[in-house]
């Protein structure tokens, strides 16, 4: 979608400041909506009351979640303070979103096994890592060859949510498949380097400056590469990007349907299942928090809430009152 000259200047500013592509697109969306909400007035003319009205509109009319409302607020504050160099006062008067966070969809171990059985090759490996290591979808597709620690059976997640790094567990059973995957990447790497104009793998600007030879180092190449070379839209250089994260979601959903799973399954469902099954097996919540990369343990506690309900916690008063035969007769 074509951007207005003003939004284009915001985008250019964010790129110079080394913001990620995802953050840039997200912020621009909420900034654009803010400008439209305020009748297309220039943001430099808008004040605290306009911001509060916008946030209230998002909560009451758009019915966004508390997290989405906070994201929109961050985008507007960035616009006013970082880009325009203005100050923002007290914004405590807006209506905060009351929409509660959805409870996670969790699969049983049998359902996970059935889902994985519908996949093979690198698609199986990707889904198995989502569940076996609790990775976010974007974290998985951004893995580099060097991020797999075969000796200590762990994965280095670099620049995860919030730009944080962490170590996560790695199932020993996946090591042979991962070695095969690295060999496949090596074959592609050999082919790509022979292509005229190949510029190596993409790296954030700071890393590219620090390690100038890294774009042509196998270890920095994506563990799950795209099927073909493409031109980087920002630099115009020929590269091989990582596997498309949206296609991965389609793969997981299709596998779940073929397995006869009627729950709403996405890539994140496998991460939810990872956390829940760890807690079921007796792993303490702080360890699960670290594995998931949650800043606040309260975010992790949602999985204990799931476990304490139903058969795992509260026994229905109906249980034991009616016999199985009586229920069948009905």
Automatic annotation (TrEMBL):
<dbReference type="InterPro" id="IPR013762">
    <property type="entry name" value="Integrase-like_cat_sf"/>
</dbReference>
<feature type="domain" description="Core-binding (CB)">
    <location>
        <begin position="1"/>
        <end position="84"/>
    </location>
</feature>
<dbReference type="InterPro" id="IPR010998">
    <property type="entry name" value="Integrase_recombinase_N"/>
</dbReference>
<keyword id="KW-0963">Cytoplasm</keyword>
<dbReference type="Pfam" id="PF00589">
    <property type="entry name" value="Phage_integrase"/>
</dbReference>
<keyword id="KW-0229">DNA integration</keyword>
<dbReference type="InterPro" id="IPR050090">
    <property type="entry name" value="Tyrosine_recombinase_XerCD"/>
</dbReference>
<protein>
    <submittedName>
        <fullName>Integron integrase IntI4</fullName>
    </submittedName>
</protein>
<dbReference type="GO" id="GO:0003677">
    <property type="term" value="F:DNA binding"/>
</dbReference>
<dbReference type="GO" id="GO:0015074">
    <property type="term" value="P:DNA integration"/>
</dbReference>
<comment type="subunit">
    <text>Forms a cyclic heterotetrameric complex composed of two molecules of XerC and two molecules of XerD.</text>
</comment>
<comment type="function">
    <text>Site-specific tyrosine recombinase, which acts by catalyzing the cutting and rejoining of the recombining DNA molecules. The XerC-XerD complex is essential to convert dimers of the bacterial chromosome into monomers to permit their segregation at cell division. It also contributes to the segregational stability of plasmids.</text>
</comment>
<dbReference type="GO" id="GO:0006310">
    <property type="term" value="P:DNA recombination"/>
</dbReference>
<dbReference type="InterPro" id="IPR044068">
    <property type="entry name" value="CB"/>
</dbReference>
<comment type="similarity">
    <text>Belongs to the 'phage' integrase family.</text>
</comment>
<dbReference type="Pfam" id="PF13495">
    <property type="entry name" value="Phage_int_SAM_4"/>
</dbReference>
<keyword id="KW-0233">DNA recombination</keyword>
<dbReference type="InterPro" id="IPR011010">
    <property type="entry name" value="DNA_brk_join_enz"/>
</dbReference>
<dbReference type="InterPro" id="IPR002104">
    <property type="entry name" value="Integrase_catalytic"/>
</dbReference>
<feature type="domain" description="Tyr recombinase">
    <location>
        <begin position="102"/>
        <end position="316"/>
    </location>
</feature>
<dbReference type="InterPro" id="IPR004107">
    <property type="entry name" value="Integrase_SAM-like_N"/>
</dbReference>
<keyword id="KW-0238">DNA-binding</keyword>
<dbReference type="InterPro" id="IPR011946">
    <property type="entry name" value="Integrase_integron-type"/>
</dbReference>
<dbReference type="GO" id="GO:0005737">
    <property type="term" value="C:cytoplasm"/>
</dbReference>
